[in-house]
Design brief:
By secondary structure, this protein is an alpha+beta fold. It is built from four helices and four strands. The protein starts with a strand and ends in an 11-residue tail after the last helix.
Length: about 110
């Protein structure tokens, strides 16, 4: 069950993905298969090859890709979600939901 996102955020995510960009959308999410996970980040791109290549740098396997057209996407959960959002400079995706981000080393 997804909740905690605004229509404008969803539409912006879709536009970015359709334009061939790597698009990030984080929202609250509950699924009994993943106890302890309360958020998910969907990383989508209409250019499937580009998305698969992007995912490889983070150890994401092609078979984990959800093939939902026109928005194939990876679901990021837990520490992997926090790590990738930090590396991509997308911490605001978590901050907006009140989720602690990874502390940067100084």
């Amino acid at each position: 069950m997804a909740f905690g996102i605004k229509r404008a955020e969803l539409l912006a995510w879709k536009r970015q993905a359709e334009a061939g960009e790597i698009a990030f959308l984080t929202h609250y999410w509950l699924d009994e298969r993943f106890p302890g996970c309360t958020t998910v980040t969907k990383v989508a791109c209409a250019d499937r090859k580009k998305l698969v290549k992007w995912g490889r740098q983070y150890g994401l396997k092609e078979e984990w890709l959800h093939q939902r057209e026109p928005f194939p996407h990876f679901d990021l959960l837990g520490e992997k979600q926090r790590f990738i959002l930090n590396k991509e400079g997308k911490e605001e995706q978590l901050v907006k939901l009140g989720i602690p981000t990874i502390q940067h080393e100084t």
